[in-house]
Design a protein that fits this description.
The chain is mostly beta strands and about 500 residues long. The chain has 3 domains: about 1-60, no CATH class; about 70-200 and about 250-265, Immunoglobulin-like (Sandwich); about 275-500, Tumour Suppressor Smad4 (Sandwich), CATH 2.60.200.20. A hairpin with a 2-residue loop joins strand 25 (about 345-350) and strand 26.
């Protein structure tokens, strides 16, 4: 209801019902009056509010309208850090939050810091069945470390070979190692409070109040009230509700580190033959060239025992690179091969280059010496790797090339003419610095892995050619004679079918 707004009768005080064209005295009402007069618009505003509320109730009966969703930002939530444990073993909890919906279900986390064992570490984030990310716990020790701040370089890699996209996020958190005799108040003053962007402090029977945080955004608030003081924190002072999530907890050292994306999704076309494992088979190899050139493009490579079934079949194995003993009559899948563990050694790409770690029961020999179980050992050019440490002559390989993106292993036992193993880092730029390969490996074609598949690069023109069964490999540099590409690393064996596998297992347990 509104008062008469006829321009010809400005002193008329009659009331006009909404929708009426004239007042009780017959004065006509202008059409635009309802939107210009604040008294006339109040009824319509009330009706509009009620209509919106009814529409929300119709969608979700009995529920209030959902608050506006804040734009998610990728970040790491770091918690569980206690700098008071100076000189002892510590642990931090890493939670991944705000990642895009199209992120692959498995992410690789690389950490580098002077506090971490071996100077860094490699971890994996995986999604749970609910779609959130499982947290990681990283352990380290500050024993013997000088007090001060230590940076931690974080790299998060997402590889999606199926769609040809690779993304990378980085962050640099800082951890404090205080003096051994530092008090808790000193630690909080130098570290914890520095993380807060809002502080409430009340002392000596005083009162401190903080109001109106409806649209303040993400805040870290430190509250300190002592000596009969009161510190008051109020959310939603105007609307009565707070739009967002409120986490209240006791004072702890926990914070968020924004993940900054430095790589954009790849725009190159998909590889014609996507594969992470493959083989180049030479029909008539030249002198010194093995018959099979086995290719593996993985984040880490597990060396283990080859399990051969009946009729030239290959059993499923826990390892990626499958090895067997070669005798006078070729591969022998029994006998000394049984001394190779299912998971015997692991080769991975670390911060300082490629490294190997013994994870077996019978051990390995590196240049004739057992490295022990103290962790990974860096590979070097010409290093001899023997399986096993307890029994000689089972399998032996030599590192013939140690490139920025690849490792080449030539067998120097009875299997030298049968196979050569090439380990490629996925999506790593190829490089061939002088002195990084022995003559046997220098004669091989220049190969690398990108966009989910294997490629060949011409050393003269720099042209890249995708490797596939349909590619004319004889025309490429480094290939001699008839050679074919197959997406199976062991094409001379056939995959064991379900019925054959069950029969093989029953025969082994009988």
């Amino acid at each position: 209801m509104k008062r008469c707004s006829s321009p010809d009768h400005p002193h008329c005080t009659a009331w006009v019902f909404p929708g009426e064209q004239a007042c009780a005295h017959g004065h006509g009402q202008p059409a635009a009056a309802s939107s210009a007069d604040p008294l006339g618009s109040s009824f319509e505003m009330l009706q509009e509010v009620r209509a919106r509320r009814d529409a929300a109730d119709a969608i979700r009966p009995g529920a209030a309208a959902a608050p506006a969703r804040q734009e998610a930002r990728p970040h790491l939530h770091i918690s569980g850090f206690d700098p008071r444990a100076a000189g002892g073993r510590q642990a931090i909890r890493l939670e991944l939050r705000g990642m895009p919906d199209d992120t692959p279900p498995e992410l690789t986390l690389l950490l580098q810091s002077a506090l971490l064992p071996q100077g860094g570490g490699r971890h994996t984030f995986t999604r749970s069945l609910r779609g959130d990310w499982r947290p990681l716990v990283v352990e380290f020790s500050s024993r013997g470390r000088e007090h001060g701040q230590y940076r931690v370089d974080v790299e998060l890699h997402a590889r999606d070979p199926q769609h040809g996209r690779n993304r990378t996020w980085v962050a640099t958190p800082v951890l404090l190692v205080p003096r051994a005799d530092a008090s808790l108040a000193e630690i909080h003053q130098t570290y914890l409070n520095a993380r807060k962007n809002v502080r409430i402090h009340a002392d000596d029977a005083s009162i401190a109040r903080l109001h109106g945080l409806d649209a303040a955004g993400p805040l870290d608030i430190a509250i300190d009230a002592r000596n009969a003081s009161i510190a008051q924190l109020q959310f939603g002072a105007q609307s009565g509700t707070h739009q967002g999530k409120i986490d209240l907890a006791l004072p702890t050292i926990a914070w968020d580190e924004d993940l900054i994306e430095i790589d954009l999704p790849a725009t190159r076309p998909l590889h014609p033959c996507p594969a992470s494992q493959a083989c180049l088979v030479y029909a008539e190899p030249d002198a010194g060239m093995p018959r099979q050139l086995r290719l593996f493009a993985l984040d880490e490579w597990v060396l283990g025992r080859m399990e051969a079934g009946p009729n030239g079949s290959l059993l499923e194995a826990e390892a990626d690179v499958l090895l067997c003993h070669y005798g006078e009559h070729g591969p022998d899948h029994e006998g000394l091969t049984r001394r190779i563990s299912a998971r015997h050694a692991v080769i991975r790409r670390g911060r300082q280059g490629f490294e190997i770690e013994d994870v077996s029961r019978y051990g390995i020999l590196l240049d004739g010496v057992w490295p022990g179980r103290q962790g990974p050992v860096p590979l070097r050019l010409g290093m001899r790797i023997e399986l096993t440490a307890s029994i000689k002559g089972v399998a032996a390989m030599v590192v013939t090339a140690l490139l920025p993106h690849a490792v080449v292993l030539h067998r120097v036992d009875g299997g030298g003419a049968a196979e050569c193993i090439v380990l490629l880092a996925p999506d790593a730029a190829p490089g061939n610095p002088p002195g990084a390969a022995l003559p046997r490996a220098a004669a091989l074609p220049q190969l690398f892995h990108r966009d989910g598949g294997f490629w060949h690069r011409d050393p003269v023109s720099g042209a890249d050619t995708a490797l596939s069964p349909a590619a004319a490999l004889e025309r490429l540099a480094g290939f001699h004679g008839q050679v074919r590409f197959t997406a199976s690393p062991y094409p001379e064996y056939r995959a064991l079918r379900g019925a054959d596998r069950r029969g093989r297992l029953q025969a082994q347990t009988a």
